[in-house]
Amino acid sequence: MQGVNLQPLLRDxxxxxxxDWYYEHVYTPEPGRRPxxxxxxxxxxxxxxxxxxxxxxxxxxxFDLAADPQEEKDLAHDPTHAKTLRTLRDRCAxxxxxxx
Length: 100
Fold this sequence. Notes:
This protein has two helices and four strands; from the N terminus they run αββββα.
């Protein structure tokens, strides 16, 4: 996860924090331990976008955390959420480029 200076938030409660954040998981476990798939994503208050980076093509997931806090219904292939998926996919790519 990328960090952000929290001092402005601590000085003034009316200051807005970030609206989303980027994360990536690239951990390679020790031999004999179960691997966790490498992934990256963007999290907002409502949405969670995940992109598993090693399968080709990559696998994406989208969850509406307000309606599905347990992340049981993947909406990535639901046409009614195509705009949200595209927005978060683009935001993830922007973060990836900015952090290189």
